[in-house]
Amino acid sequence: MNPSIMDGDIVAVDSAQTDSSKLSSKIIVAWHREHGLSLARFRRVDGMEMLESENRDYEPILLSKERSWRIVGRVLWWIRQAP
User: Which domains can be identified in the chain, with CATH numbers?
Assistant: First the structure.
């Protein structure tokens, strides 16, 4: 499956929306000190939280209790240049 948001797209992010209990199945931006920013779908499954890429070449990232990942905000919309 190809990602919905492609390289070069412009993304609008609402940094006020960081409450993980309200973000399940939403596309978010998350930040990690070593990995930088990631754009992924946030999932809550059986009490576990994960970041899931729409590109199935990448494994989901389980978010641990230590919270090394921080939710920056929810993606509101994106645009791309016409071909």
Answer: 10-78 (2.10.109.10)
Predicted model pTM:
0.86
pLDDT (tens digit per residue) in 18-62: 999 999 999 999 999 998 999 999 999 888 899 998 888 889 998
Q: C-alpha 66: how far from its chain's center?
A: 18
Instruction: Find out whether 34 and 16 touch, Cβ atoms under 8 Å.
Output: no
Q: Are the CB atoms for 14 and 64 separated by under 8 Å? A: no
Scanning 1-83, the segments in alpha helix (DSSP H) are none
Kindly give the pairing relationship between strand 10-14 and strand 48-52.
unpaired
Contacts of 20 (CB under 8 A, 6+ apart): 42, 44, 49, 71
